[in-house]
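Private note to self, pasted from the team thread so I don't lose it. Backbone tokens:
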């Protein structure tokens, strides 16, 4: 009746304390405990404002890549709930941590916003190349994967650590290890993307001259591992930001 499977081993785990930016126990100005609903509502307001400000900047630059109202709402929700979860899980479980919306919603560094954006950028590469997941899978089944550049190998080796990281977490019950791994993948991908072209375009016409399928497959593998990490952390992803 408790909903707990008797075959699942239960292990006690300690937790640190959430602190305010004054490094004291996180409370309202009146000294009451902060309600989760109020916290989420404030997060939604902050994220919505930040996203709409970025959309205005896009408009000023010509309006390319503007999000629909539905996409803005979906992005706002994913960013808000994702950033709060990630900030909580990215710290060592037994340590105290300082709660800061400004840091959580920062699109630079080890935050959910940065990582969600990195995932949407990876997904956009195959989309810009006009290749579907089915086409990439078919190519992978029919051709050996050829990785030669140091940045390609570095990223591939990082992805191969996934099972090792999951095994470690099940033993230590420390989800921050998965958060760190997710950030390391993103960092390795940025290095790969800066050094290895996936799509070669004509500089004058912008037309695609060559598509590097092996590198697109590496992008697909990276996206899949990142999506699995987000899923395990309970964070919803979005297709565009």
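Design output:
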């Amino acid at each position: 009746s408790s909903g707990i499977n008797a075959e699942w081993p239960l292990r006690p785990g300690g937790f640190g304390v959430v602190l305010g930016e004054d490094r004291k126990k996180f409370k309202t100005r009146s000294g009451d405990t902060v309600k989760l609903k109020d916290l989420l509502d404030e997060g939604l307001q902050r994220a919505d404002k930040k996203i709409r400000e970025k959309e205005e900047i896009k408009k000023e630059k010509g309006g390319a890549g503007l999000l629909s109202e539905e996409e803005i709402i979906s992005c706002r929700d994913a960013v808000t709930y994702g950033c709060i979860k990630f900030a909580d899980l990215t710290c060592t479980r037994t340590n105290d941590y300082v709660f800061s919306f400004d840091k959580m919603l920062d699109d630079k560094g080890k935050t959910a916003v940065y990582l969600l954006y990195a995932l949407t950028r990876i997904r956009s590469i195959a989309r810009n190349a006009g290749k579907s997941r089915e086409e990439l899978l078919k190519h992978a089944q029919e051709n050996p994967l050829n990785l030669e550049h140091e940045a390609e190998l570095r990223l591939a080796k990082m992805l191969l650590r996934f099972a090792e990281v999951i095994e470690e977490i099940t033993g230590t019950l420390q989800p921050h290890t998965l958060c760190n791994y997710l950030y390391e993948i993103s960092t390795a991908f940025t290095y790969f993307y800066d050094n290895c072209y996936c799509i070669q375009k004509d500089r004058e016409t912008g037309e695609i001259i060559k598509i590097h399928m092996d590198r697109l497959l590496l992008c697909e593998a990276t996206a899949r591992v990142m999506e699995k990490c987000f899923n395990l952390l309970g964070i919803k992803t979005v297709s565009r930001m």
